[in-house]
Amino acid sequence: MYVAVVAMCLGVMTTAGISVSQDRLSKRYTETVATEGGEKFSFEMVLIPGGSFLMGSPGDEAGRGDNEGPQHKVRLDPFYLCTTETTLGLFMAYYEEMMTIRSKQASAGQASKDDVDAVTCPTPVYGDLSMGYGKKNPAIAITWHNAVNFCKWLSEKTGKKYRLPTEAEWEYACRAGATSIYGVGSDPKVLKDYAWYGACSDGRNAEVAKRKPSAWGLYDMLGNVREWVHDYYSPTAYEETAKHNPAVNPAGPKSSKSPGSPAGVHVARGGDYDSPVEELRCAARAFEEEWWRMGDPQIPKSKWWLPEMDIIGFRVARPATQK
């Protein structure tokens, strides 16, 4: 159902009307979220213009993985994307609010809602959610399921349809209109100005927006923490989307049979603070692997948390228009 909802959201603005409609959209806006306790958090959303691009990598790109091809043309409607990864401060506000709700439900003898469109209450985190990081560092140690639930919470708070970007949207935004390997250039030497990664990170992630932004005003698209996207992972996903010329607003496979979590394995993009340059390429694809859950001593493993995993986070997106 979530796939269908995203597809519907993506299709609100038809590509045929992009040139006219985009002129009427705000180029960026500030979203402010007030918690039940009165604390306020703000973040910036920037308009990603609709258009077409070649998704994936050419066969001769250094560091290329077999799951990055075939290259295929994709056409996307405009959408908004957060300029930074979701911060730990905002995510902890969501978590604390959910824990308060859980406590009230327990006192009243009520069960937490668990239908697909509801904002459900995460189970208590195992260990320290912050892992010693500050509120301006990216949110970490969360599963795809938890990131999606956060988006539902944020949507209820703001009245806007926040969600994870699709894999195609993420790569398109990362490239920022360029055809270079990293979006900001093809020479790895430029990365130290834009990304926290293995060569310059001191072995930990950093506060968001400490490096230069991309041409489209996005920070930390490469490095710092990997970012969950909407799509299920499949090593052959591009073979299907390449059958369409172009593929219009693709949202990935409808399910995943890959090993991993019971809910299926999802894609994570962008590399992290420990990544080599090959993993920072715009076309590089990663996905949840079994070792990501090794820090969780529970049986079965939590569908909410990836304890001790400070390499995975997310950023939010939303449709450019909504009814």
Topology:
Blueprint: H1 2-10, H2 18-21, E1 28-34, E2 40-48, E3 51-55, E4 72-76, E5 79-82, H3 88-108, H4 144-158, H5 167-175, E6 226-232, H6 237-241, E7 247-248, E8 266-269, E9 285-287, E10 312-313, E11 317-319
Describe this entry's structure for a reader.
The structure is a single chain. The protein is of the alpha+beta class and 323 residues long. It has one domain (2-319): paralog of FGE (formylglycine-generating enzyme), CATH 3.90.1580. 20% of the residues lie in helices and 16% in strands. The chain contains six helices and eleven strands. It has helices at 2-10, 18-21, 88-108, 144-158, 167-175, 237-241; strands spanning 28-34, 40-48, 51-55, 72-76, 79-82, 226-232, 247-248, 266-269, 285-287, 312-313, 317-319. The strands form three sheets. A four-stranded antiparallel sheet has the order 1-2-5-11, covered by helices on one side. Strands 9-8-6-10 form a four-stranded mixed sheet. A three-stranded mixed sheet has the order 3-4-7, with helices on one face. Strand 1 and strand 2 (40-48) form a beta hairpin. The model is unreliable at 1-17 (pLDDT under 50).
